[in-house]
Amino acid sequence: MSSVSSNMKGFYRQKKNTITNKSSNKPPIHDAALSPSTTAHADEYNENETMLRQFDMNMAYGPCVGMSRKERLERAQKLGLNPPIEIKKLLENEKVQSQSLWDGSI
Predict the structure, then answer these.
(1) Where are the domains of the chain?
(2) Which stretch is the leader sequence (predicted)?
(3) Angle between the 69-78 and 47-57 helix axes, to the nearest 10 degrees?
(4) Cβ of 15: how many Cβ atoms within 10 Å?
(5) b/e string for 17-39 if b means 16 or more Cβ within 10 A?
């Protein structure tokens, strides 16, 4: 029986992992603080668009998928959710993007 087990060990050889302590001089692939998506789109919108994006992300005024910002604002007013007056002024007076932040991504 010992001859069978010795043959099995030879047939199924074990490869042991070797530990190497080589230090790498490569720089990190990316910096999490300055991701490309953050820096690439930083100049594309102004302070008004920032306020509207905050409105889009605030779920207190209901979901925003499938409707424009103005439609969402009007629905929130009808439901008595008291959306900010500044948002209404921006949507009526300024030239801002009518679609929400989530439009087309879901």
Answers:
(1) 45-100
(2) none
(3) 50
(4) 5
(5) eeeeeeeeeeeeeeeeeeeeeee
Tell me the per-residue pLDDT of 48-100, one tens digit each, with 9 for 90 and over: 889 999 999 999 998 888 889 999 999 999 999 999 999 999 999 878 888 88
pTM beyond 0.90? no
| Cβ 53 vs Cβ 45: under 8 Å | yes
Computed on alpha carbons and rounded to an integer, the radius of gyration of the chain in Å comes to 29
pLDDT tens digits for range 29-41 = 555 554 444 444 5
Distance CA 78, CA 61 (A): 11
- Look up tokens 């007013």; give the residue: 77
Query: In the numeric block, which tokens belong to residue 74?
Result: 């009007």
Torsions phi, psi for 91 (to 5 deg): -70, -30
Residue type for position 2 = S
